[in-house]
Hints:
By secondary structure, the chain is α/β, with parallel strands linked by helices. It is built from 13 helices and 21 strands. The strands form five sheets. Strands 2, 3, 7, 8, 9, 10 and 17 form a seven-stranded mixed sheet that branches. It is globular. The model is unreliable at 189-193 (pLDDT under 50).
Amino acid sequence: MHPRTPDLPTLPARLAAPEPGWAETTDVVVVGSGIAGLTAALYLREAGLHVTVVTKVNIDDGSTRWAQGGIAAVLDPLDTPAAHAQDTEIAGVGLCDPEAVRVLVEEGPARIRELIRVGAEFDRDAEGVLLLTREGGHRANRIVHAGGDATGAEVQRALHAAVRRDPWIRLVEHALVVDLLRAAPDAASGGRATGGRACGVTLHVLGEGSEDGVGAILARAVVLATGGMGQIFATTTNPAVSTGDGVAVAIRAGAAVADLEFVQFHPTALVVPTGHDPGSGQQPLVSEALRGEGAHLVDADGKRFMLGQHELAELAPRDVVAKGIHRVLTATDADHVFLDARHLGGEFLARRFPTIVASCRAAGIDPGEQLIPVAPAAHYASGGVRTDLSGRTSIPGLYACGEVACTGVHGANRLASNSLLEGLVFARRIARDIACDLPAQAQPVATAGVAAARASVVGAAVREPLQRAMSRGAGVLRSAGSLAGTAEQLRRLAGVDGVPATAGWEATNLMTVATALVAAAYARQETRGCHWRDDFPAAGDDWLGHLVSGLGPAGRPILTWEPSC
Length: 565
């Protein structure tokens, strides 16, 4: 199969940036400070390695703290890893890697217990037994949660405290990674390789050394744990920092990236009524755990429209529920449906879902007395930098973990609450692999003059029009026409030159990831999981495989097809 793509913009091989004005050395540099990055750092410290964690804003400003529902793992004696695996693979619609899923469900419970030992406090009953709940796609109660609906915040708190206690973990905040550093190709490559091992990163640290603050961290291994890319869309549950930086860095460095077309839209983001400010462009999430406790989706007439669409109704996998909502919105020309939790009672809602209740009240809604307006929003990327079961990418010395990675666990659609678990499980595997085979520090190839003609940055002003274009043409519902139109808009926006600074680098990362996503979504001519093509409404056996993205020598995205095993 030869994937077809629309006419796409040319992308840079590296970002235009000043040469590093300072450098420091560590054993391993971890880029990102969510659950994947911080647990990787802690596990690496257990192996006696020195670790530098680079984080874009503050340590707690990533996506992990926004996770409401919880973490899925087999902790009930009546549940089984096989059942968890089956639910995961059903949600993944034929594209999960069975071995990766097995690793996730079998190793997950031990990682949860280690997280508890680190200090995370999950909700328990009066006897001290962990409380377990259900979410969409799960056929058993296997979700641990904290603070009712504040699991991510509790996990982030515990990991943050553990990292702060370790003097051999250096934390660099307010730092945007610019590009990957690579050593010269190994002699064994016969000159065929375009670069050698990953040996560090260039980064911009606000106020460090000079006005531009560009420096380098040299390391014997690099772990990307940069989170998601939801900010390529106008409506997302992701924080403002989720600009796809890790995937963009990997694409420019030549690493394989897979399954970018599979972006999960959470069915129920809060639609804030006119006149109320939610506080940021990030849409408040209304966790499906609320549906797990008995809330119902209804249309403007009060009808439960998910009944009859799936045996699990409102607790169907997220792609099914998002599509069900989208059909109602299309048919009624509305911008939201409703979540009815009134029958659960205001007292129960305030106790079990304090975060959601607070968000609703800030928007002038009392969920114990009123319907909650909701609509789908970009939430989670199932694809990313391709890895093996040890977190290794196609570039030696470069690892990826968490939402930035494509481990094969999620397939075409992530099962609810498997994301935090994936970060825990594969962080441990990455640490073990690095500790077993960590070479001496290599010297990076000088970047001055390297691909100078292909080092550029787009204007910061393209961010908002790019987001609008992606939501219109590459969002919940896609077609060849909408995707080709989006590609045309991206080409036009890519011609807007910018200056080497944080806003321009972020905009360039968004452009890089958006372009690669549009290419993959255009090429996959079927509907599968969270990729919905209205011109190809059915799934096809010919599409049981993966689209692997790369950057061609002319700077245009290229796709290769790999059938599933």
